## 1
Amino acid sequence: MFKSLVHPGSFKGGVHPAEAKELSMDSPFERMPNPKMIYLPLSQHAGKESKLLVAKGSLVKKGELLAEPDGFISAPIHSPVNGAVTKISKTANLSGVPKTVIEISVSEESEPSYLEAIDFKTANKTELLDRIKEAGIVGMGGAAFPAFVKLSPPPGKKIDKLIINAAECEPYLTRDYRLMLEYTDELISGIEILMKIIGVDCVIGIEDNKPKAVEILKNKLGNRTDITVRVLPVKYPQGAEKMLIYAVTGKKVPPGKLPMDVGVVMQNVGTAISVFRAVALGEPQIEAYVSVTGGGITKPRNIIVPVGTPVSEILDFCGGLKPDAIKVVAGGPMMGNNLYDYNAPVMKATSGLLILTEAESQPGESIPCLRCGKCIEVCPVNLMPTRLSQYSKLQRFEDAEASGILVCMECGCCAYECPANIPLVQWIKLGKKEVMKIKQQERKSA
Ligand code: SF4
Ligand code: SF4
């Protein structure tokens, strides 16, 4: 589909699924009209659920603080709309897990209640960092890690590079691509804020299937040497944190370690834009930028919606499901989660809703392992997926841990490549959950 620009060295393993980005890549963002109801989960980020500050009957304004962080790794939640709290409920989130949710009946738009705007050119590092924390900015690359935590490395951890993850290696998704085309100035200002906080230069890592975005970024950046663009070959999962760090710096993040352990802070394109808006406009993270795509949706497009909008309303806005649609996935086809309840709300870090037809989702019957070794060949972190999935199936969690199950980044390459259609990554995910549960219990009893 695309002509490659460069092909430097790359990480071990990985796969080349069909990109299918053409479905939505030429659709500029459209703002969807507000829904009648918003369902705002208190847990939209990695870490602890936020603490509720409102009750049934509270009248809320767009931008108002509704829940405060509970502990260091947590984030505040603000109202994406004007309205009234009708209920505090337990509602399934995008992964099907029941979570505490603030239900808001939406009323007319009026002047929002944002934070005070800050001039980032004159503000100091602490003011900028406080604002990112106060605005509830979480990483939009998938893990929804509170951004200020990543930007506050403990003393002794020397950071020497900021990497902006613009790889968007998941097939189908075009949110980050459109953000780079349509919000280039906001992105560059957001990067400047992040650089000021950490005090380092920045590299934007982008796959070579986005030539227009590369061109526009290079034109805007001109001869700057503090922010550079690194064009990388298309290979899934190029955008995984560890893979991108290796591609850009040549450094390997050891198992169990973080990017900051090799001197890197990584943020996603969307996160940098949210950072700019929080600082320069005082806007908390209350909107989601979402690619709605796949062969099963009538009008694939990129949309902006208030966080908490039910998926069902988004599907309607996009013309509804086609007759041959068989599943809706939150996220991309490789790492996304199948949706069980279309009334689940989108969250701060939701990057896409993927509606697949039977032909696209290649269900296929599982057969016994052929011992071909392909899953091992493609695993970017040198695991033995077939063994890990077996341990998980047999509930041999100690063996699974000893074989490195916690190192698995759930990229799905193994399952994608498996000719026997064994749901390797699904078994591994289950095993990881159990291992983590056991470790947590051990910690508690200790
Ligand atoms: S074992 Fe984990 S990291 Fe390796 S290919 Fe499978 S999902 Fe990816
Ligand atoms: S790719 Fe599938 S069939 Fe081949 S060894 Fe791995 S699990 Fe077995």
## 2
Amino acid sequence: MPTTRAQPGAYEGDLGGGCWARLVPGFVSSHEQVMQTLLGTLPLRQEPITMFGKTHLTPRLTSWHGDPGCGYRYSGRGFEPLPWVPALAEIRDRLRETTGYAFNSVLANFYRDGTDAMGAHADDERELGPARDDIGIASVSLGARRRFLLRRKTGGDAVEYALGAGDLLVMGGRTQSEFKHWVPRTKKPVGPRMNLTYRVILPR
Ligand SMILES: O=C(O)CCC(=O)C(=O)O
């Protein structure tokens, strides 16, 4: 699959058509320590999800946190958030300042090794905001680097990042409407990685 590698270093990526992604390398400097704290705190587990009429367990561990009422539906299931824990709230506050988005929820994904993955999808559910044409997602990756690909729903080349080690990728504007993203499985030996995607959930 053809890919375009994202530039290293802080990077303002205009993807065209009101879509953009911005990479901030090493946003969380003590990323291994934060990951260990979160591993000891979050009730991470494999969730059953239903896709194309079949129910299976997610190939990664997850935990959903946020303000009360920030419920979220995906893959045919509704999730009510667990309360914030200090390490997640601390990063949320820095992200609010850095990006200007009023994040009120976060999904933690833990990839134990290269067999854990995330399939191609867009975070384009109706409850995400702050606006239909500006869905703000801040994705913070702790631990090992994994490939993260971003490609237009209509096809074409993918933009590829190697996200880990405290990197932050902010996606905004119409990116979720126009692009899909995914973290593929790998046969290469890779260490554990945790990804935190901060989101803005609109009130119901
Ligand atoms: O692990 C990642 O980098 C991607 C996570 C993701 O796509 C999501 O939570 O929607």
## 3
Amino acid sequence: MSDPILTLYQGLERLGPGAPEDVAWAAHVADVPPDARICDAGCGTGADIPALMAVAPVGHVTAVDEAKLFIDEVLARYGTTVRAYAGDMVKLKGPYDFIWSAGAVYFHGVTKVLRAWRPVLAKGGAVAFSEPCLFTDTPSEAAVAFWGGYTPLTDAAGIAKQVGAADYEVLATRRVSDAAWQSYYGPLAERVEALRRNADPALALVLDEAATEIAAWETVRGETGYLLSVVRPA
Ligand SMILES: C[S@@+](CC[C@H](N)C(=O)[O-])C[C@H]1O[C@@H](n2cnc3c(N)ncnc32)[C@H](O)[C@@H]1O
């Protein structure tokens, strides 16, 4: 495998912050039925799949990611208990009662993605997604820089506006916890150190960037993070 980013992330359980409690909370807010058809959009290596299966014990989960390597890991981990395919999460087929998307919508923009998902949501269906968010009116430069120039970066009210622009309503929001970030950055930091020994220059650069991000998080975590929003077509 030559892509240093994939080298860093392959095999990691989480590719972004998250916790089973967040999935359970969002499913409760969205009133997800036990037989729900669920999509994990931008599933990565499938960290949230067990929690999604738990909220719909007689439903099914379809996991979608553009990286085939990650989908192969999902299939190796969960086998036939989950449907999984490599494809574009913006072009889902559906229908789905619940679309879950952790740390992936921001690659494409909240309004654009929610509009694209509207036709594939079943009647009464809902979406839960996490999005970079500022938790202060006076963010430091470091807090803004943490997101690497992400221009739609805004606060909870700003995210709600983007949701409204897609003609959805916000059912509830909550901040992704520090523990959820730790469950991502803890194993990632270990992986960075393990890979350093034999890293070529391209991989070394990626490792340095990851280490810098992890260190930066410690200083900015009071000011910024992910906001989890549960939304439904208005
Ligand atoms: C930060 S990772 C989060 C992965 C996973 N949800 C988690 O929390 O561990 C974002 C994921 O979104 C995927 N992604 C980004 N754009 C995508 C697209 N258009 N279609 C499918 N997957 C996409 C990436 O490949 C990556 O696996």
